[in-house]
Amino acid sequence: MLKNIKKTLLVLSALAVALPGLAQEKLTVFAAASMTNVLQDIGEQFKKDNKDADVVFSFASSSVVARQINEGAPADIFVSANQKWMNFLEENDKIIKDSRKTIAGNTLVLIAPKSAGDVKFDPAKPQWVNYLGERFLAVGDPDHVPAGNYAKTALTNLDMWGKVESKLARAANVRAALALVERGESPLGIVYATDAAESDKVQVVGTFPQSAYNAIEYPAAIVKDHDSKTAQDFMNYLGSEKGKETLTKYGFSVK
Predict the structure, then answer these.
(1) Rounded mean pLDDT of the chain?
(2) For 160, how many CA atoms within 13 A lie in the half-sphere containing its CB?
């Protein structure tokens, strides 16, 4: 019996040496909360095409994950919801500059709970602010969250920031802002069009004019000292026809 066990162990050891490709390489992607669904889908597709890769994700506000990477969190790839936080990491020499590329775009919309009924607004006109009344507008915290920063820019340019600044329900990220409207805790919210499309509990009641805010861009890059073949392959996959097709399916714009 003992002899058979020893033989089995020897065979397994030989296989481990002869077939190192059987061990999966873990790829960790830190990304903006608004990319949750689409990147998880892309990750599953990537793993099907790359059997030796295991992709795991960490989603939060771009500011949160960028600071985590800056402090040494073990991320291989960073996907931001704006250029600001990618610039932050580049300035701190935390990403491989040559790997940086913009993979998608988005738009900003005004949402309400579906239970609100047939409600429509032109975000460039003040009627929706009057509708808000003394209630709170759900938005990613403009001081930290890209979606909130885009919203502040749009509202400022539309001369409405002063009317709503004191009425903000400042959420930790754009998905948290979406959740406030889903639960009916806020009658209106400002999120990305792609986040609104992911929920069956909210409705888009207006689209902000794109001239009111800077273009919403999602840059991606490999984190410095994490330049593995798998990381390069995943970056290439994001820009491939398959990757672009999935991004488009979830409502993102691609070039």
Answers:
(1) 92
(2) 22
